[in-house]
Amino acid sequence: MLRTILTVAxxxxxxxxxxxxxNMLIVEAIDATKKRQPIHATDKVVSxxxxxxxxxxxxxxxxQVLENVKNKCEGAVCxxxxxxxxxxxxxxxxxxVLPNYDRDRVYMSHVRKLIQWxxxxxxNGLNEFVPEEEGEETTEA
Length: 141
Prior knowledge:
By secondary structure, the protein is α+β, with helices and mostly antiparallel strands.
């Protein structure tokens, strides 16, 4: 699911990949507007499935971090206001979500963005973060 959810540099929010064409992608905003727009080859686009968070040991995929946030917030929207929370509050929250995160390479702006993305996904009914391949392996084991 996270492979088709995109973030576009310079544009707020998250987008769902609808179609791809020659030198562009057609994306739909993940919000109430559901506005569709083209994203050209010159725009920097990153799939949420390609993002990972730094820890002291290795990188943890974003889906696993989002799943941890979902468990902490019990599947509801995160109670922390990422816009108004101070860095200490964000650090305490993230330490509960990912205890061994790399405090030198994970900035509080990353944690704010994570909470913002989590809230966008939950508010729009996208709450299954485990990739299908991972989910199948877990059920077999």
